[in-house]
Amino acid sequence: MDLDFTAAEDAFRTAARAWLTENVPATPLPSLETREGFAAHRDWERRLAADRWSVVSWPEAYGGRGASLLQWLVFEEEYYAAGAPGRVGQNGISLLAPTLFEHGTEEQRARVLGPMATGEVVWAQAWSEPESGSDLASLRSTAVRTDGGWLLSGQKTWSSRAAFADRAFGLFRSEPGTDKPHHGLTYLMFPLDAPGVTVRPIGRLDGKPAFAELFLDEVFVPDADVIGEPGRGWWVAMSTAGNERGLTLRSPGRFTAAADRLTALWHAAADPGDTALRDRVADAVIGARAYRLFAYANASRLAAGGTLGAESSLNKVFWSELDIALHETALDLLGPYGTLADGADEAPAHGSWADGYVFSLAGPIYAGTNEIQRNIIAERLLGLPKGRR
Amino acid sequence: MRFLLTDEQREFARTLDGMLGAFGTPAVVRAWAAGEHKPGRDLWARLAETGVFALAVPEAYGGLGPLPLELAVAYTELGRHAVPGPLVETAAAAAFLDRLGETGAADAWLPRIASGDAIVGLCADGAPFALDADAADAVFVVRGDTVCRTEAHGPVQPSLDPARRLSRPLGGTVLTRGPAVTAAATYATDTARLLTAAQALGLGRALLDETVGHVKRRTQFAVPIGSFQAVQHRLADTLLALEFAQPLVHAAALALARDAAGAGPDIAAAKVAAGEACHTAARTALQLHGALGYTDEPDLSLRIRKARPLRDAWGTPSECRARVLAG
Ligand SMILES: Cc1cc2nc3c(=O)[nH]c(=O)nc-3n(C[C@H](O)[C@H](O)[C@H](O)COP(=O)(O)OP(=O)(O)OC[C@H]3O[C@@H](n4cnc5c(N)ncnc54)[C@H](O)[C@@H]3O)c2cc1C
């Protein structure tokens, strides 16, 4: 075991830092959950892509740098330390792209990945339905065979950024009446501006309008937009869900940067005698450090040809709780200023703590609720008997 | 596999685990708690044969080290089996004597520590009690910039973990004084903190394993209690705490090996995380064993009683958290 970076990784870090120093906007972009912010963030994606920093871990042929997992982690550390904008293309980049690399066709990769890397096409994830959250396999929206493709009908909901996104990917029931609910599902991509699609924004807890529900009424999708085999969508979806939870959705850089900012807040503002608050700051710092080391160990495991299974659930529970702890502690340190949200002229750090706090509250819910993750940890990692569901 | 233990390091852990399992440590612990040191000394000698203590001692004095990562790996196994005795203190004394620049004491004690011939106590500045002074061949006490070798100790005090025998060090001859003492004591404290964290990690793992085994076997309401979600989630949280403490312990050991002066915050972070994880594991073990967990006959009790003292030894969580932020 060693914690040293190779010369190549150090060089990668230096190059990333130099580019970010040069390019990160001095004032933060407007929230990407608003129409104006969405557009500004697309421009940012284009700028990243122009210098091949938008998808560093992809092969060069698709606009990436062929970076290793460790280099990707390094890049993310630099990205968040630089205070760079949130990634509007994230769902496509971290969920759909890995799915296409694993299950897509050459044609799909050639067609989809380029515009994704530049932010020209922003993707939304359309998995959840009003009656199907944790029990995703109970989903009801359908894909019915038609000439040269499929007709999609039903309702999807809680789709992040779908109000302003261009296309979506999701699961549809293509074979009704199978023995098991997760059989007979098909994984498809579809345009959000196609005839038959209605996108209705639903405000989030912070009132921002980018979240949406989707109503689909016989939306035509060509065969070319099926990912993997029809009827095998569940397995296609699950292979990427593991990835998402295990490493790529939330890289440690996000938390180490927040922990550094929190430490600075503590030193600048705090009453050193307030040991209760001091202990919480320290715990957040320790948590960020632990998460980073854990992620590097996971990356080492993957780089050596290993896989992440139920360990992904450990990761997901840990970062989501850490994120809340980091933000709650920051708000406590900021006192009355902590409640000022972005847009308030006196909001500390342009309201990023308040904004981040509200967003952190969703962490234990999305990407598989923490209750479900704990069930997985108990049954698959500890081998406990299956409970009643 | 750069951010993971090597195959060799894992094999070393497995060997120690196997040896300690075969030795039957619970009986050793009970004897030690009763003030009967013979089985403990026998176990100490077996540990020395595997090289555990040599890892704490530099080659110049017949050791193999100092190798903080290998030591941490070894002490995790010692913690897993709840091995009694001033294990941490002996390794910390080695670190202390090596850095003291007082060659007489180093020449006298370091080779004996490496070979397992000497059990040595170390009392940090401000610590009121020495651990297992009644079993130690020597106890060194740091007070400010002075270090004494004590001649005697007060009566052994009852303590939360009867296998951790605490007494006041008494009398003593000044060995040396000056800034070298303070510097050596800081390094020794970091070493002690790291190895206490490693022990806590192993102890926590053992507590979790025992509890998982129990909830699979114990049936209530006609099903194994391990199928209840409240039970499952509590164990999942215990695993989470331990899994995320482990890389901190290993990284802290690497930090100590590389830059002893700058490793303090990393070690303090590891100590907080491992100490709290172990404490959580003990609380969970007790709760999920029900009244069985509250009785002292099962060997589980030996482990439960260790968790809290380990969490607080060589720096309470609060002291360590302050150290993390002091940078
Ligand atoms: C900010 C945010 C962004 C999101 N983005 C997207 C997106 O882009 N695309 C998308 O498809 N979806 C998205 N979602 C939806 C998300 O995936 C679901 O909310 C999630 O799967 C949980 O489903 P649910 O909300 O229906 O809760 P439910 O499944 O109704 O659960 C409610 C509560 O019951 C608990 N519960 C349910 N079953 C069990 C069980 N077996 N054991 C123990 N407890 C249980 C849950 O843990 C939870 O606490 C997003 C959600 C949020 C909050």
Question: How would you briefly describe this protein structure?
Answer:
The complex is a heterodimer of chains A (389) and B (327). Chain A is α+β, with helices and mostly antiparallel strands. Chain A has helices at 7-23, 35-50, 69-81, 90-103, 106-118, 233-248, 252-269, 275-303, 311-334, 352-360, 370-381, and strands spanning 123-126, 142-146, 149-159, 167-173, 185-191, 197-201, 212-222, 226-227.
In DSSP terms (H or I, runs of 4 or more residues), the helix count of chain A works out at: 11
Biggest interface pair, counts = A-B, 45 and 44 residues
Radius of gyration of chain B: 19 Å
N-to-C order of helices and strands of chain B: HHHHHHEEEEEEEEHEEHHHH
Widest sheet, order of strands of chain A: 1-4-5-8
Distance between the termini of chain B: 29 Å
Number of strands of chain B: 10
Strand order of the largest sheet of chain B: 1-3-4-8
First and last CA, distance of chain A: 41 Å
Helix content of chain A: 40-55%
Measured on Cα atoms, how large is the radius of gyration of chain A? 21 Å
Bound molecules: flavin-adenine dinucleotide
Roughly what percent helix of chain B? 55-70%
Number of DSSP helical runs of chain B: 11
How many strands, which pairing sense, and closed or not: the largest β-sheet of chain B? 4 strands, mixed
Binned strand content of chain B: 5-15%
- Structural category of chain B is alpha+beta
β content of chain A, as a range? Answer: 5-15%
> H/E series of chain A, N to C?
HHHHHEEEEEEEEHHHHHH
